[in-house]
Amino acid sequence: MANEIRLDNRVAIVTGAGAGLGRSHALALAARGAKVVVNDLGGKVDGTGASTSAADAVVDEIKAAGGIAVANYDSVASPEGAHAIVRTAVDTFGTIDIVVNNAGIIRYKKFMEHTPEDFAATVAVHLNGSFYVSQAAFPIMKEKRFGRLVFTSSSGGLRGGADGVAYGAAKAGVMGLAFVMANTGAPYNVFSNVILPNAYTRMTEAMVLPRNIEKLSPEFISPLVVYLSSEQCQLNHEMFACGGGTVARTIIALAPGWRAESKAELSPEAIHEHLAEIMDMTNYANPQSPDEETRLVVGRRRK
Ligand code: NAI
After folding, report:
1. N or C, which terminus of the chain has less Cβ within 10 Å?
2. How far apart are CA 104 and CA 113, in angstroms?
3. With the CA atoms of 59, 92, 223 and 253 taken in that order, what torsion angle do they form, in degrees rounded to the nearest 10?
């Protein structure tokens, strides 16, 4: 393949790579030549427990296929764990180029059944973990003027899934984190993008009909992760919904809205009256920074 996308000499961390999507991403990155840190705490889907066998099995698979990988068993959910993951990459392979923030847990419970501990534990893995690992890797990427970060969000966060308030809140937080990192990293060729996958894994097995299992293979997600990890990818601050073969950009759109000309004009009644204009998404914008949004919303200062 003349224009094959290769990741030779790139070092990648994939968090939560011992199973499901992370395993698939790690195999795909290694198949393109990346040296991969296969991080996994090896716990249960609800975040309890730990074991080394999940990460070890994926490292063995990568090596058996002729790839290069090392296992790491630290939790992403503490700054110390995150630094140890990055240290594994640097000590073993000399640097870090790619971080795929993928580790995740879920506790399926009704809104009122979520305990503070459920909430804290879930946010700790998805949101805090993505922050800790990305922050530990960022100085190395900034220094070398290359970095690719892939963040794993979810329609559960973007759209608000039922029975997963902690999960949804954490995944929406991951989007905000990714956007901040996208703007922080842009001057240094350190790009951050978000995936919103749909895949059959142990996390979703109870919800997937048997006839859809193959269609929802994690292997339908990993080519996008490889692309977003590559030098060829010049995208930054983007989000992609994916699954079953589809790769689709998704955005947080801003309508042109209705604009009152004076304080006196802007009343609750006027809002009710202008609702059609306020809700109309024709000619929407997709602001890439708070400044851009403020300019669009507030516009030029009136006399
Ligand atoms: P999974 O349960 O198969 O994989 C998650 C992996 O993360 C596990 O191997 C687990 O041991 C590891 N992990 C959990 N806590 C960790 C920690 N503190 N430190 C390091 N590793 C840890 O589930 P799946 O589906 O592969 O999930 C991967 C990511 O994709 C998660 O962030 C999930 O929320 C996200 N996602 C999955 C969707 C799906 O359809 N399967 C949909 C949307 C998002």
Report:
1. C
2. 20
3. 130
**pTM beyond cutoff 0.90:** yes
Is 163 in the same domain as 276?
Answer: no
Give dist(CA 127, CA 104) in Å, integer: 9
Say if ligand 1 is within 6 A of residue 22 CB. yes
Q: 167 catalytic, yes or no? A: yes
| Joined tokens for residue 233 | 């990818």
CA torsion sign for 148, 155, 124, 184 is positive
Q: Which domain holds residue 38?
A: 11-250
CA of 125, closest atom in ligand 1: 18
Please indicate, yes or no, whether residues 230 and 286 belong to a single structural domain of this protein. Answer: no
Report, as an integer, the average pLDDT of 77-83: 98
- Select which of 132, 167, 200, 227 is catalytic: 167
Task: For ligand 1, say whether the CB of 141 is within 6 Å of any of its atoms.
Answer: no
Same domain for 265 and 202: no
Q: Are residues 150 and 258 in the same domain?
A: no
Q: What is the pLDDT of residues 178-208, one digit of tens each?
A: 999 999 999 999 999 999 999 999 999 999 9
In contact, 98 and 34? CB cutoff 8 Å: yes
d(CA 87, CA 75): 13
pLDDT at 303 over 50: no
Torsion, Cα 244 249 254 256, to 10 degrees, reads: -110
Amino acid at 147: G
Structure tokens at 100: 């795929």
Q: Counting atoms of ligand 1 from 1, which one is nearest the CA of 204?
A: 41
